[in-house]
């Protein structure tokens, strides 16, 4: 009874969905087939994708029977290929067990905090600008601002930049994100300053107002946690590989291949 109940539970968990000459095709077979399905078919709705997977499994089993009848599974070429696939799948299973599955959310958060703490400070400027075609127009804008005109309202009225409807607001930017002349002027100014002379760039003449300056905040944790997890997995994998290589005897008989392998695996200088 116990064996019967266990078999029944397994059938519910992984039901048989078809048979091919008496050989069971289970739900797990379809799941594996889906993972190796053509990228174009992967875009299909779930029901159609399952049907494509079922078709692929049935076709494979039908032809596999014919291949065995011709003893293609006994050729050296097939055995070599099978061993390569077996090694690769074992590698992937070991990687999943000892690298992917052992990385915890707490470890990812700790690595994120460490990386953030080690990041160099980078200044950001929050600025508005008014862009006009001529230097005289820019000087007229500066004069109007000196008379108390509101910068954002004047930008809406005078600027030729597409962001004029936002009052010329450029948001926060770091060095390297703006044209050099504009950037140099903005980063030299203090919070609340308005440029006293027009700044010429390839786009025309700018009048700049610096709204704020700050140290750039780090990227939000939720935005980069997947990349951080990948970093941890890479490090764990490299440690695993190093330990495996250190305990193994690797001999490369081809001189050219040996030289290339040794160069590629040379320990980085400390």
Automatic annotation (TrEMBL):
According to its UniProt entry, this protein's organism is Rhizobium setariae
> Which Pfam families would you find in this protein's record?
Rotamase_3
Q: Belongs to which family?
A: Belongs to the PpiC/parvulin rotamase family.
What GO annotations for molecular function exist for this entry? peptidyl-prolyl cis-trans isomerase activity
Reactions the enzyme catalyzes:
[protein]-peptidylproline (omega=180) = [protein]-peptidylproline (omega=0)
Q: Where is the PpiC domain?
A: 122-212
Highest lineage ranks of the organism? Answer: Bacteria, Pseudomonadati, Pseudomonadota, Alphaproteobacteria, Hyphomicrobiales
Q: Which InterPro entries match?
A: PPIase_dom_sf, PPIase_PpiC, PrsA_foldase
In its UniProt entry, what is this protein called?
Answer: Parvulin-like PPIase
The record's section on SUPFAM superfamilies has: FKBP-like (SSF54534)
Q: What is its EC number?
A: 5.2.1.8
